[in-house]
Predict the 3D structure of the following.
Amino acid sequence: MIACRALVFDMDGLIVDSEPLWFRVERDFARQRGGEFDAELARTCVGRGMAHTLGVMRDALGIRVDVDRDAAVIEDLFIGRVGELSLKPGFQDLFDDVRARGIPRAVGSSSARRLVLAVLGRFGLREGFDAVVTGDCVPHPKPAPDIFLEAARRIGVEAPGCVVLEDSMSGVRAARAADMRVIAVPEGDRAPFAGVADAVVDDLHQARALLSFA
C-alpha cells in the first residue's frame, strides 16, 4: 500500500483520454504547414508541454513556428473539440472517494491554464479540486518538479505526503524530483516505468486499490 495524505492528478491521458485528440489536432496543424507529425514524434512529446511540441515540429519537420502564437492556435483548436473527450476508466470512482474522505486534491498539468480549465469545465470537475497548477504557473514544466511542488504548496501538504498519478515518463520523473510518491498509469509500454515509479498499473481502479489514506 502507498500512504497518501494528498493526491495530485496529471490531466492529459490520466483524468481524460485526451492523447488521441491531441495527436489529431497537432497532426492537422503540422499538415497545414507542410509537415507530417507522426505518432512516433507525438510520443516523444507526451507530458512535456506545448512549447516542447512546437520545438519538435520546428527541429524535426522544418516548420517555422512562433511558440506563443502557435501554442494559442493549437489550444484553440483543442478547446473547440473538448466535447469529444471522455474520462479515463476509474477516475470518477477514485475522485469521488478521495473527495468524500476530505483528502486534498490538485491537478498538476504542463498544459496552459485556459486549456486545463476548459477540460475540467467540460466534466464539471473544477470545483472539486483544491488547486489547479499548470505549465504557465511555474518557471519550468515537467520533468522539472516545479508544477508538483507548487501543487503541494497550494494544498498545504508537504511533498513526501503527496502521491502523484501520472501517465507519462516526464511526469513520473517530475514527481520523483519533487520527492513525491508516484503511481504510473501508462497508456503504452509499461516496462520503462518499472523502477522509476513506486507502482505501475493498468488503470485508476488499480491505482485506487493501492492507496492508503491516513
Remarks:
- The mean pLDDT is 94.
